[in-house]
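During the reporting period the student researcher (J.K.) took over the structure-prediction task from the postdoctoral fellow and processed the backlog of single-chain submissions. One of the processed entries is reproduced below for the supervisory committee.
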Amino acid sequence: MNSVTSDGTPLFTAVSGSVRITPEGLRFTVEESRIIQGTVFLEKALFTSYTYAPIARGQADDDDEADSTAVFQISLTALLETLQIFGVNEARDRWACRDSAYRGITGAQGRGGGPAAFGNQVLGMTGVCRLKYAAMGEPLCVVLEEAGVTTTCEMVTYEAEYQDEIPLQRDALALKIIMRSNWLHDAVKELSSTSPSRLTIAASPSAPYLVLSSNGPLGSAAVEFGKDQQLLETFQVRKRTVNTYKYSLIKSASPAMSAASKVSIRGDEQGVLSLQFMIEVESIGVSFVDFRFVPFLSEDGEDDRDSNGDVDVDEAVPR
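J.K. obtained the following structure tokens:
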């Protein structure tokens, strides 16, 4: 799991993340100030071997159903360094290598025939990795084997500070759009030319259908997408919706945008945005990375629009 942006800076300022072990696989979650949340789900099919047994939780009430998942918190920095312990380069060089490997990746292979998103060049490791977790409160054991050398690392686990997701009202979606991920990546990158602080996403059942726009000290810019099915594979918008988000947070998802083949853009009536990226893993299947963003809202609870119907992002405040 990559935790750096395309320019080599950390994806989140948070240094810890929540891990959920389920019968279906592993789920890693990080968040920042409850306005952005990133989740990576590693399905058990991605592992050579995956054995799961329910975690013992002591005495449970007779009326309570036993929880079949284990949730704990670990240091992401320590985990990433542990997984690359056999790397031949310094940590900074490894991040730089990983950054260059992510550039141009689309799905299982890069646009120029580059490495796979989960390939050895990107992950920085070529050996075997085993993860073991015995019970609640026990350390997460990481066993690395390469060229006859075995290293065992025990990582301290903590009680998870947060277990709830940023809520997305799936039964009250204002928009649902599926498109090629690299097109969204190019649009977000194009808008960076104005040095924006905020990004506005407008969707409408009539033209213009999907518009990403930004304003900054260097001017304003907008990218418009048509409704052609070859461009927007799925387009479901009931009424015009406009929401504004912090640009730097949207941009922090760039590594996933670059590595994914498709992205599902969903937004509910409250403006919560979900970007779910589908990353193809060669000869295995797919993995999903989901980002959720909380929008800026007006102080008085009403939409901030000028006489032309545009959002006045200067008046907006985060939820």
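The committee noted the following: DSSP finds six helices and 20 strands in the chain.
J.K. will present the remaining backlog at the next meeting.
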